[in-house]
Amino acid sequence: MKEIFFTPSDVIEYLFCPRFTYFMEVLKIPQQEQTREKVLIGRSLHKKKQKENTTYLRKRLSIKEKIVNAYLISPRYHIKGIVDELLFTKNNQAIIIDYKFAEYKEYLYDTYRTQLAMYGLCVRDIYQREIKRGFIVFTRSSNKMVEVSLSEEDYHHVLHIIHNMLKIIEFEYFPPVKKNQNKCIDCTYQKICV
């Protein structure tokens, strides 16, 4: 099988419905996400964050190095992506920061944790550092920062998802639609999904 890489967006779409992987990777039918308003706002936000808050958290977490828009790629785990901020502490730990153009709702979506775990696997592979936590910044709630602990169970969960996505591509397997078909109403593949 050729080298295949998944971004957090690919995995989140798989979690929305496994057929996304089939349509995008097997049939090669792209989405038209570049015109969606939230996507455009999110991209603008990330550009803005590159220029501000350059020293926050450093004292509290004893940060010795900060990489903004760190490009991560791991052939071992079939993952690639750009993490908003990757921090290294003085005691050789790594911490991930991810900005969301969203309001904090007193709970975390599983997709947020999944995204952090994907980046964590990449950091483990590339930098040989443990990642036991990350932070989500909710920009529509006055930049509220929420700490997210990452466990081995979170990493195994991501690896299981990626294994299933690879099976769809390798065997051109057409997966069943998600049980909650209310999601189909909002799906970009609604017209071709039968």
From TrEMBL:
The DUF83 domain, residue ranges: 10-194
GO BP annotations listed: defense response to virus
One protein family per Pfam: Cas_Cas4
Required cofactor(s): Mg(2+); Mn(2+); iron-sulfur cluster; [4Fe-4S] cluster
UniProt GO molecular function: exonuclease activity; iron-sulfur cluster binding; metal ion binding
Cofactor note: Mg(2+) or Mn(2+) required for ssDNA cleavage activity.
EC number: 3.1.12.1
Entry keyword set: Antiviral defense, Exonuclease, Hydrolase, Iron, Iron-sulfur, Manganese, Metal-binding, Nuclease
Keyword presence, Transmembrane helix: no
Record keyword Mitochondrion present: no
InterPro entries hit by this protein: Cas4_exonuclease, CRISPR-assoc_prot_Cas4, Dna2/Cas4_DUF83, PDDEXK-like_dom_sf
Biological role: CRISPR (clustered regularly interspaced short palindromic repeat) is an adaptive immune system that provides protection against mobile genetic elements (viruses, transposable elements and conjugative plasmids). CRISPR clusters contain sequences complementary to antecedent mobile elements and target invading nucleic acids. CRISPR clusters are transcribed and processed into CRISPR RNA (crRNA).
Family to which this protein belongs: Belongs to the CRISPR-associated exonuclease Cas4 family.
Name this protein carries in UniProt: CRISPR-associated exonuclease Cas4
